[in-house]
Design a protein that fits this description.
- The protein contains 29 helices and 19 strands.
- It is α+β, with helices and mostly antiparallel strands and 818 residues long.
- β4 and β5 form a beta hairpin.
């Protein structure tokens, strides 16, 4: 057994990790058990507008509405293939269900069309209250015998649907990974090592997400699959290193040597992926930050698992690994290397032509900002129901105008102005809500008008108005002008409600019932449409939720509101899409520039060349352009978030494939003819690229085909297609570009300036650093060890130390390592 007493720093770290493996196992088991519990503490947000910048109108308006108003749970319930009398019977059924506050239905085409009835149901509770959830379940149960379609957010059905779908996706992804590893591995026993390592990293990442407070449903859904696809490479690299070292060393020493050599290699490989994800975190639209941070954390925890957990597992599983070697199923691809060399003058020209065309097409893609403007391949029951309701009755588009409360006259004028707009189908506000006999609940009534409306004696009405004036300290009205004293109806009923326990009016029961009914309606109306400081006006528009026409109409409404209120908010799907478009225009440029800058910085210091990183990035950027030219060529919409996320991941992750080929080719081209060097490079790189690439492609397509949420599905599909294109370009175009661009690489290469001081030492000397010079001959290598003799060399980096003769005897002779 070799001694690591005088090993370098990495070897010492590796020795500690391998030797303390039982303690590390205990730590990982404890952490995994904790995270298995803590992952249930993670809060998941399913509202994309939550991630808009804090200064956007949508974000400010939604936060204000959440604070100031009550929004009851609602549902659109459609029953098909019924007559109108049957529809009226069903209306009565729904109204009698406990938890149903109100049902809107009439004989207009908005509610009865093509032998289908549409009921707009409002529940007694909020969207996630038990009373609303139970009432909706009862609606479904009582109408189960009919041709029923339901569209509702009550109970957050999206979360349950996504969780169920992603469970299937995760299981299939694991099966694919195991299958790929089975075909590309060298031994069967390494597969459980890889799975345990990744499983630990995945559990740790899911369990630590609660530290972020809240994550998006997009991140929560796809993080584990992307972590698997992005980080499994690190475990494979260490596993291959271990098997190489195991040919000449015992398990412990092989694990130590493999880990000490793999740490720099794996860490360098992870930097490009982290660079792409880091660029996401700079997005103004904070979903990018959310996903970027979670995936960067996933990469870091994967590194921790590979560096700390996996070496011990390799030692433990070593006997099984030794016994389970099998035939390598990955074929040699000499034919591709020969074809690449033969087409070295053709493919670069074709690539440039295709890349330029793809750039033009990708810029012409129709970006959309409303999730439902793109289609998922799979449809869930809720989506099918919503589509059917829209086909029969059209799609509703609501908008809320939030203005300071208190001036009912001004509010009524605003309501009148927006009601006259041709695209406004309906306006709901306190100012246009009819109370009775043509009076609105914000109408200002004098005592006689109020007595007639409420069926009160005029004297009783006078008493009420007198009390109201006293309560408001308006004594002059009592003395001089009580008969003409006008009070908004809603304010008078508020006063009456406050004082009913103190004032005995001796009203007829019929009048009491009318007042109770009106009081309840007013209370509900105020909860939804008025707070102490703000009023809400709800519009229904005959407009699409995004597009130039809708955005132009938004500006018109802003202009009308500004005539009456200097401070206001206009909130709705149109405003949200408008804000998302503004955010995307900035984020698109920012992400593109930062991703390339971060990646190119890593590559420059990796290859010590400016030209080579540019060549590599041009290949991956070309694949990104090709990927996002597909929507234009297919005449489909492209969701903005899909583009931002996939382009950053594609650049950060797929660049690793190009690095693998470039590293090998740069090493071999000086040792053999270029043709043989390229053939050998592709043979060496193919197993690594096909293993990693197949996993990422499979993960993307499984997500794309098996999830019904439009955002998640399109991210998966474009990630799968983009990675496929990257693999093709890296294997079939990059080699020719490297062959043709050799002069560029050489002309733009640089070296770190080295020292020129020659050190002269004689005797027993410890060397730790890069040495150039004579050492009983000539040496130019990294040296870590002890030798005895005469040193006449330049020490570039590191240090030397003269040792007493006893050390030489202790080590049993000289030791040179390079």
């Amino acid at each position: 057994m070799e001694s690591n007493k005088h090993g370098n720093f990495m070897e010492k770290v590796a020795s500690v990790i391998v030797d303390k493996r039982n303690i590390i196992f205990f730590f990982f088991i404890t952490a995994a058990l904790f995270c298995a519990v803590s992952k249930n503490w993670v809060k998941v947000c399913d509202d994309l507008t939550h991630y808009l910048p804090a200064n956007t109108e949508t974000r400010q308006g939604l936060e204000l509405m959440d604070r100031e108003f009550v929004t009851y749970g609602t549902a659109e319930v459609m029953v098909e293939n019924i007559s109108y009398p049957q529809a009226e019977e069903i209306l009565e059924k729904i109204e009698n269900i406990d938890g149903v506050k109100s049902v809107e239905f009439d004989d207009s085409k908005n509610h009865y069309n093509e032998a289908a009835a549409l009921y707009s149901v409002t529940f007694d509770g909020l969207v996630n209250d038990d009373v609303s959830i139970n009432a909706l379940a009862e609606v479904r149960e009582q109408l189960a015998d009919y041709d029923l379609r339901v569209k509702s957010d009550v109970g957050n059905p999206l979360k349950a649907i996504i969780n169920g779908e992603m469970l299937v996706v995760d299981l299939i992804a694991v099966v694919i990974v195991v299958s790929v590893l089975f075909l590309t591995s060298n031994t069967y026993a390494e597969i459980p090592v890889l799975l345990i390592t990744f499983g630990a990293a995945a559990v740790l990442n899911m369990g630590t997400n609660y530290l972020m407070g809240e994550i998006s449903f997009v991140t929560d859904s796809i993080a584990i699959v992307l972590q698997l696809a992005l980080a499994i490479d690190y475990a494979i690299i260490l596993c291959h290193r271990f098997q190489e070292e195991r040919e000449t060393k015992e398990a412990r020493e092989a694990a130590i040597a493999a880990l000490s050599k793999a740490i720099p290699e794996i860490f360098a490989s992870s930097l490009t992926t982290v660079s792409g994800l880091l660029a996401l975190s700079f997005m103004q639209f904070k979903l990018g930050y959310d996903m970027g941070v979670v995936l960067i954390k996933a990469i870091l925890l994967s590194l921790v698992s590979v560096f700390c957990l996996m070496p011990g597992l390799l030692v433990v599983f070593s006997p099984l690994i030794d016994k389970s070697h099998h035939k390598n199923f990955v074929p040699k691809i000499n034919f591709l290397g020969k074809a690449v060399y033969a087409t070295r003058f053709i493919m670069p020209v074709l690539f440039i032509a295709v890349a330029v065309s793809a750039l033009v097409f990708s810029q012409r893609s129709n970006y959309v900002y409303e999730q439902e403007s793109v289609q998922s391949i799979r449809k869930n029951e809720a989506q099918i129901s919503a589509k059917r309701i829209e086909d029969v009755f059209g799609r509703t588009n609501q908008m809320a105008i939030i203005v300071p409360s208190g001036d009912y006259v001004k509010e009524a004028k605003l309501v009148k102005d927006v009601s006259e707009l041709s695209k406004v189908e309906r306006v709901l506000s306190l100012a246009n809500t009819e109370a009775k006999d043509g009076y609105y609940i914000t109408s200002a009534l004098n005592p006689r008008q109020f007595s007639e409306l409420a069926n009160l004696d005029y004297e009783i009405a006078q008493v009420l108005y007198t009390g109201y004036a006293v309560n408001k300290d308006e004594y002059g009205q009592i003395v001089t002008n009580l008969d003409n004293y006008s009070v908004p109806l809603i304010d008078m009923f508020d006063y009456l409600n406050e004082r009913r326990s103190e004032v005995v009016l001796d009203l007829p029961k019929e009048t009491e019932d009318e007042l109770d009914d009106l009081e309840e309606k007013l209370a509900d109306g105020k909860k939804q449409l008025q707070s102490r400081d703000w009023s809400r006006i709800v519009l229904e528009l005959d407009l699409p939720r995004e597009g130039d026409e809708s955005f132009e109409y938004l500006n018109i409404i802003h202009g009308i509101v500004a005539r009456y209120y200097p401070e206001s908010y206009v909130v709705g799907d149109i405003t949200s899409c408008y804000d998302l478009r503004s955010s995307f225009e900035n984020d698109n440029k920012l992400i593109s520039v930062l991703t390339i800058l971060f990646v190119i910085a890593v590559l420059i210091f990796t290859f010590k060349s400016v030209g080579l990183p540019i060549l590599l990035i041009s290949i991956i950027q070309g694949s990104i352009w090709c990927n996002f030219s597909i929507p234009y060529l297919a005449g489909e919409n492209l969701f903005f978030l899909t583009y931002l996320i996939v382009s950053a991941i594609q650049m950060g992750a797929n660049i690793d494939y190009a690095i693998v080929i470039s590293n090998r080719y740069m090493e071999l081209k000086n040792k053999m003819p270029l043709k043989e060097a390229m053939i050998e490079t592709l043979n060496f790189s193919f197993p690594t690229i096909i293993t990693s690439g197949t996993m990422l492609v499979s993960a993307g397509f499984v997500i794309g085909f098996l999830t019904s949420n439009e955002t998640i599905s399109t991210i998966g599909m474009y990630l799968g297609m983009g990675t496929t294109m990257s693999i093709f370009l890296v294997m079939c175009v990059l080699p020719q570009i490297l062959l043709m661009g050799d002069i560029i690489i050489r002309k733009t290469s640089f070296t770190i300036k080295r020292g020129n001081t020659v050190t002269h030492k004689v005797g027993t000397i410890r060397v730790n650093g890069h040495v150039r010079g004579k050492l009983d001959g000539y040496i130019d290598a990294e040296v870590h060890g002890i030798f005895r003799g005469s040193l006449n060399a330049v020490i570039d980096v590191g240090d030397i130390e003269e040792l007493p003769e006893a050390v030489d005897s202790e080590d049993g002779g000289s030791s040179n390592e390079s």
